[in-house]
Amino acid sequence: MKKHRGKPIVQITNPDIDEYSHKHTTPESEDISELIQSSDEALEYIDMLSGRVVGQFLKMMVKISGAKRILEIGTFTGYSALMMAEALPDDGEVITLEMNLKFQEIAQDHFDKFRAGEKVRLIKGNAQQLIKELTGEFDLIFMDGDKLRYPFYFEATLPLLKKGGLMIADNVLWDGTVLAPEDEKAKSIAEFNKLVAKDGRVEQVLLPVRDGVNVIRKL
Ligand SMILES: C[S@@+](CC[C@H](N)C(=O)[O-])C[C@H]1O[C@@H](n2cnc3c(N)ncnc32)[C@H](O)[C@@H]1O
Fold first, then answer.
1. How far is the CA of 75 from the centre of ligand 1 (A)?
2. 126 C-alpha vs ligand 1 centroid, how far in Å?
């Protein structure tokens, strides 16, 4: 798997532990394994794809919570959208938002090709605008794109989440840079974690899994 992000400032998890966790986590279905392969062939890098441990964690959350309607911000090639869709009942739906034209094309091909894609609706465009047009409640929101605006998405999508629903935000440790944020993305993510921590409308647990996952429940 090709990489493109720089070296982490702190090693959040020991690489051997990461590998051990990966090995002992339920493997992806044949469809998803094919999606990973096809993404790797199509792109220079695929490290934006959330990967087995986070993907299986999302699947587990969808199953345990009984979520039926899911919103995802940041589709990339469709990995996490399809993982969650595999966990949904037949009448469930993942609405996923993506602005990059190339990723839209690859993701739509994947949704057309793989069975669980029937439950995925890709909406093309900038999530900042698109979320204003969304109606109805969501049971689960997966935030995984536009890291510069995590605080904005928290405020803008919390009203769309049902009471008791889950918002799951990925990369909330941003290679450890949230400890001493310097660049704009690190500052935005650190601000997001701070906002969530002091917001009385939610309870949350920030898990140091991979690049950090914040699991937020609306009270
Ligand atoms: C980390 S990747 C998503 C990975 C995907 N969830 C997965 O696990 O396979 C983030 C994605 O968000 C998209 N993105 C960034 N800013 C966006 C915006 N304002 N609106 C829509 N998509 C955006 C990027 O193009 C990229 O594909």
1. 5
2. 10
> Which residue among 52, 75, 106, 120 is best mutated to probe the pocket of ligand 1, counting the most ligand atoms within 8 A of its Cβ?
75
Which regions in the chain score pLDDT beneath 50? Answer: 1-4
Q: How many CB atoms lie within 10 A of CB 12?
A: 16
- pLDDT value for 7: 54
Cα separation, 175 vs 13, in Å, equals 10
What atom of ligand 1 comes closest to residue 127's alpha carbon?
20
CA dihedral (141, 88, 124, 186) in degrees, to 10, reads 30
- Percent of the residues in the chain that have a pLDDT greater than 70, as a whole number: 96
CA of 64 from ligand 1 middle (Å) equals 25
**Residue 10, pLDDT score:** 73
Q: Is the CB of 97 under 6 A from ligand 1?
A: yes
Q: Top-level CATH class of 31-218?
A: alpha beta
Report the chain's C-alpha Rg in angstroms: 16
pTM of the model: 0.96
